[in-house]
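Supplementary Methods. Inverse-folding protocol.

Structures were first reduced to a discrete structure-token string of length 385. This string, shown here, constituted the complete conditioning input.
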């Protein structure tokens, strides 16, 4: 099978997330890194792209040049990843979708619910794939959690408890650091800081593993560092459309916590617990039985877990390999479209624009509820009410 051609906008030298995308897209030999506009500084982007192996004429100075250069090529890219700062996602994603490219957009997909709805409709009308990088759902054992819950191992799900709490913005002396300050400034970050940055990962994961969507929420938001206009900590209660009760804590001032993403699900017949910092173990407590530890890489866990693990049991698999699973799903989705066939159901798990717009509605709802003393509000985008 010929490799698909992959391009990236953003993710330049020294960026946080660019390397994980390059590793993830390249891992299974399904994509070839073929084009990029990697940096907001045109020359730096061109130079870095070539250093990474791009041909000079496909290492572009900016995304408009890349779009113009790629759209008429016979060997144009099959997928573009948008890994630029948040406020640029909508414009770049929209332009590439309009030109018929498949897109993987970093989260948050857009800055507003309205923009998110436009992207969903655009992907529908163009027939292009628009995925959103909730990359942590790519972990093999997160996929297995979803499979266990879907096949009824836990019975009806009563509670989901999700966390994404770190301590990287806890130093009050950092409040004026420009790399931190913009995140808490509504003019640059929108209506929410910590929930929009991290909370949406945890909330999406709650939906992903339970197979349910969030309907309403109540949020207690606070700026522990008082000079911040937007929240650095939030406690969100929510309800899901299958009757599950949700709890979510997100924070950027939780000193001592590193990445701090984790999820617990409790059903009538058992509980499951997974933490991203120990991603190779899933804790399963069946009702009235002993605790079981499920290891990533065990034989015959579930089709969803089995196809998303590569390294022998007992050796760690981490975040770039989780991203690789999103790319593996996308390669299957793109190839299925090219070959006019149905895609492998176990690969049909990549997060979509629909998930992106649901997150934007949740972000808006958290800000609204927080401003109203944690009143319960509708958390769904208008298009799904
Ligand atoms: N899914 C995840 O787990 C995850 C994790 C971290 C960051 N992110 C998201 O990834 C995005 C990027 O975050 P980051 O932490 O890598 O940021 P960063 O500031 O470290 O890097 C951004 C990169 O984009 C480049 N850039 C900026 N504007 C550009 C433009 N107009 N055209 C081309 N390149 C441009 C910059 O030069 C830089 O190389 C954000 O939206 C963030 O929310 C997602």
């Amino acid at each position: 099978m010929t490799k698909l051609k992959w391009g990236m906008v953003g993710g330049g030298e020294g960026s946080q997330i660019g390397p994980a995308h390059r590793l993830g897209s390249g891992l299974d030999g399904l994509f070839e890194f073929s084009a990029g506009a990697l940096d907001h500084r045109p020359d730096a982007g061109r130079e870095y792209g070539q250093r990474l192996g791009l041909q000079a004429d496909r290492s572009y100075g900016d995304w408009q040049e890349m779009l113009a250069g790629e759209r008429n090529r016979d060997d144009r890219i099959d997928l573009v990843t948008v890994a630029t700062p948040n406020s640029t996602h909508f414009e770049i994603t929209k332009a590439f979708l309009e030109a018929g490219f498949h897109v993987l957009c970093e989260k948050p997909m857009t800055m507003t619910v309205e923009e998110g709805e436009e992207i969903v409709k655009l992907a529908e009308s163009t027939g292009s794939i628009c995925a959103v990088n909730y990359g942590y759902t790519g972990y093999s054992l997160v996929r297995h959690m979803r499979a266990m819950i879907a096949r009824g191992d836990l019975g009806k799900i009563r509670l989901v408890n999700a966390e994404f709490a770190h301590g990287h913005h806890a130093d009050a002396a950092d409040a004026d650091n420009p790399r931190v300050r913009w995140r808490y400034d509504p003019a640059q970050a929108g209506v929410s800081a910590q929930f929009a940055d991290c909370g949406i990962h945890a909330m999406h994961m709650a939906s992903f593993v339970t197979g349910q969507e969030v309907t309403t929420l109540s949020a207690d938001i606070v700026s522990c560092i008082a000079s911040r206009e937007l929240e650095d900590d939030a406690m969100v209660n929510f309800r899901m459309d299958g009757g599950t009760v949700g709890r979510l804590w997100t924070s950027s001032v939780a000193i001592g916590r590193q990445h701090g993403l984790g999820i617990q699900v409790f059903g009538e017949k058992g509980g499951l617990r997974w933490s991203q910092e120990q991603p190779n173990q899933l804790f399963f407590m069946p009702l009235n039985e002993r605790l079981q530890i499920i290891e990533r890489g065990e034989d015959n866990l579930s089709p969803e877990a089995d196809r998303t693990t590569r390294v022998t049991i007992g050796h760690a698999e981490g975040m770039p390999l989780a991203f690789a699973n999103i790319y593996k799903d996308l390669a299957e989705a793109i190839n299925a479209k090219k070959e006019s066939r149905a895609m492998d159901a176990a690969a049909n798990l990549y997060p979509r624009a629909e998930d992106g717009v649901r997150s934007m509605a949740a972000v808006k709802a958290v800000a609204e509820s927080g401003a109203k003393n944690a009143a319960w509000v509708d958390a769904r985008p208008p298009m799904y009410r």
